[in-house]
Design goal:
Layout (H helix, E strand, L loop, with lengths): L9 H6 L9 H5 L4 H7 L48 H11 L1 E4 L5 H20 L4 E3 L2 E4 L7 H8 L8 H12 L4 E10 L23 E7 L11 E2 L3 H11 L10 E2 L7 E5 L4 E2 L9 E9 L9 H4 L2 H6 L2 H7 L29 H8 L15 H4 L4 H11 L16
Antiparallel strand pairs: 1-8, 2-3, 3-4, 4-10, 5-8, 5-10, 6-7, 6-9
Helix pairs in contact: 6-11
The structure holds fe (ii) ion.
Fe (ii) ion (FE2) binds next to loops.
Length: 413
Amino acid sequence: MTATPNEFDPVNIAQKSEPEAQMYRAEQAAKDPMQSVLADNPEIYFVPPKRSHEWGQWEYKAGAYYDTTTGDKHPFWRHQSLPRPSKDIARLRSDFVLWGYCMIADALSDTQVASVLQRVLAQAEGERLAGIAQKTPSGQNINCCINKGRCFEGLIEQDPAWMQGGPLIEQLVTEALGQNWISTSLIASIALKGGVPQALHQDQDIALDCRSPLTINLLTAITAIDDGNGGTLVIPGSHKVLSAALRDQRPVGKLPPAINLDAPAGTTIITDGRLLHSTGINHTDTPRVVMLNGMQHPLIRQQENWMLSVRPEVLERASPKLLQRMGYQATNAAQTNEGHGFGARGLAGEAAGATVEFRLAMDQGAYVRVGELGPDSTADELNTAFTLRKVVAKARAGGRSAPVGIGGTKANP
Ligand SMILES: [Fe+2]
């Protein structure tokens, strides 16, 4: 027997992998701008207590980033033309590029707001009663909303029946992220009295020196938000400042102060994933509800594991667009299933890359995967009713060409 070469011995590899020997070390170390943000802005950071028994016992520090108000009242910002709720797509574009966020007025009608609010408050109560509520430092989150009400399916899909401003929002998101973007999660964020503010952070945690965002967030106010009830804290323009500092390999420097966003219920705020932001403090007795619907470039791993978590009945009724948005649409570059999806472009409804049938088969205990095959395989083994066969056949029946790498094999029907 030949001995394994010494170069493959983990001990030997570790000896030759001292930090100074590793490639791209400086580049990796320079990718996180927060160290520089904290060094140059010592007042900006606040670590909220995380344990539930500490709720409400934190010390409010005057002058900290959360000691602020809305843009129109803030001495530093009030003479600047910060984003305001609008339906003018030209204004929304320029606000988003310049300030890192824009505000779509009446993205949800009053009726649409009312249905989401009713569902969120009922679900929050139900999850508390069931003993499964997710407490956050700011209050309570409802995760994986897709399974918890039809209105949430409509929000992820930006279906005008549930979100009247959906088409305008989709246009802006497509311009920011490119085609085929997907959703990372839909969470209801409830800020409650006694909660603490979240630390300022960027949602996008990769490639922060990019010139356009790879992630964005849709924050939809289901209750009106302002400086009294925990309106989201943002530092306008910080998306560009941090990216430029990283690109130029220089310190971030002194940042301008944060403000509380203020907007009527039904407003959707689109934030650039590089914008510094956090949940504010709710000083009122009324829950502050914001829906957080992150969207991102399709090559980035999603926050919610939709592949496992979505209820079968939701999948059964989901439109091709909703399925694509949750990642059930393979592309040549991502999330192919046993190869199904190679060559697909990722367009919603493209049968070549639709993968939901695999998940539904798995739910039924009927997912038959292709395993080891060879020249000695029996006829039965070769003719197994692999789920892949059915999915490919369905894709072909859909009038699309078979995905690259699937067609033409002997055992293919
Ligand atoms: Fe965030």
